[in-house]
Amino acid sequence: MGEDLLLVWSTFPDVETARRIARQLVTENLAACANIVPAVDSIYRWEGKIESAQEALAFFKTTATSYPAFQDRLKALHPYDVPEMICLRIADGLPEYLRWVSANCTSG
């Protein structure tokens, strides 16, 4: 596997927003796919206060080459001022699946 692959996660205010943005990122070949967890409880500090919210969580699979454009586009589409975007390099996986991810993302 020549290309570094990434798993990126982000939270959204609701499942409809997560689906809309995930579909857009996949349509634009910035992510090969997205998995959406419809309900997570989030507890966080924002502007000096402890907050809590019901959110949707999405996991995206993309490439390191596509990530800069992915990040810019997700930030532009996302309704939060500071959207959560955390990514991890995928160290291993089913080779056929990893090739599929790489083939379904633009290369820059």
What would your notes on this structure say?
The protein has one domain: Alpha-Beta Plaits (2-Layer Sandwich), CATH 3.30.70. The chain is about 30% helix and about 40% strand. The chain is elongated. The two termini are about 15 Å apart. The model has no long low-confidence stretch (mean pLDDT about 95). With about 110 residues, it is α+β, with helices and mostly antiparallel strands. The longest helix has 13 residues, at about 15-25. Strands 2-3-1-4 form a four-stranded antiparallel β-sheet.
By DSSP (H or I, 4+ residues per run), the number of helices equals 3
- Could you report the average pLDDT, rounded to the nearest whole number? 95
Give the SSE order as H and E letters.
EHEEHEH
Determine the structural class based on helices, strands and strand pairing: alpha+beta
- Oligomeric form: single chain
Total E-strand runs: 4
CATH-derived architecture: 2-Layer Sandwich
Helix content, binned percent: 25-40%
- Give the terminus-to-terminus CA distance: 17 Å
Mass-distribution shape: elongated
Residues in β-strands, percent: 35-45%
Mind describing the biggest β-sheet? 4 strands, antiparallel
CATH class: Alpha Beta
Number of domains: 1
Radius of gyration: 14 Å
